[in-house]
């Protein structure tokens, strides 16, 4: 027996929960999100959020999500790109983090009941399914940690001119005066012979 039908069923449950959370957040009907009849900019933004979360927390491909949301795969890709850009805003990013926390809590809470209902006593399938869900959760957490680490790095950067090439770069720390490009050159460890410092 393959775990694919189980994965698909579990992904459908997660996708339904995502739609409920997004509908509750924006005070709209789930039907309006998936029907594509309302084509206002606000409704498009709401759909982008649902698409981005579904792409992140399920194994559905863009084509499968396009089938669920009655659109095409290029729209899913475009929506995901728009949300990634929007996450640069702190307020919106915080809102999405709250929803993601609720999704993770939902997965962890409903996972044991799902196994009991759909897997039964088949230990081999249960182990395989356990590994799949743990991988999904671990990958998602790792992605979130990496995202916030990058945001923190951007926040700590100070714009300075490199003492060697004179190009502006994002420096971290008051003693960081050489850009990454110059540091990666062969002359960096041998010592630059053409670096001048103007005081």
Rg over CA atoms: 23 Å
**Unreliable residue runs:** none
Fold-level CATH name of the largest domain: Chromosomal Replication Initiator Protein Dnaa, Chain: A
* Strand proportion: under 5%
Describe this structure in words.
With 199 residues, the protein is mostly helical. It has two domains: 4-155, Chromosomal Replication Initiator Protein Dnaa, Chain: A; 158-189, no CATH class. It is built from nine helices and two strands. A two-stranded antiparallel ribbon has the order 1-2. α1 packs antiparallel against α3 (41-57) and α3 (41-57) crosses α5 (73-86). It is extended and about 65 Å long. The mean pLDDT is 77.
Name the features:
199 residues; Chromosomal Replication Initiator Protein Dnaa, Chain: A; two-stranded antiparallel ribbon; extended
